[in-house]
Amino acid sequence: MARGFGVIGFLIYLIIGLYFLNFPFGWVTMPEFIKGIEKWIIFAGGILVIIGGVKYLFSSRRETTSV
Questions:
Q1: How big is the CA angle at 57 (ends 56 and 60), to the nearest 5 degrees?
Q2: What DSSP assignment string belongs to 6-56?
Q3: What φ, ψ does residue 31 adopt, rounded to 5°?
Q4: What is the pTM (predicted TM-score) of this model?
């Protein structure tokens, strides 16, 4: 079950990430429906970036080096 959520989470990250890459350059023309909810997409992307940063911060897989 956790793996299924991981795939869905990855797809959400991927879609919003691709939208962010397309946003400044306009490679793909977005339909009016997407332009209407643009603020919500950017809001969701900001939340995903914060969640990703927190997950990275608390990740136990990250190697720590001592000085």
A1: 75
A2: HHHHHHHHHHHHHHHHHHHH-SSPPPHHHHHTHHHHHHHHHHHHHHHHHHH
A3: -70, 165
A4: 0.67
Here the tokens at position 62 are 């990250």
Asked whether residue 60 carries a pLDDT value surpassing 80, the answer given is no
Closest CA to 34 of 17, 19, 18, 46: 19
2 in helix, strand or coil? helix
For the chain, what is the radius of gyration of the CA atoms? 16
Report percent pLDDT > 70 for the chain: 81
Q: Which of 46, 38, 3, 2 is nearest to 22 (CA)?
A: 38
In the chain, the amino acid numbered 13 is Y
The closest of 41, 12, 60 to 4, measured between CA atoms, is: 12
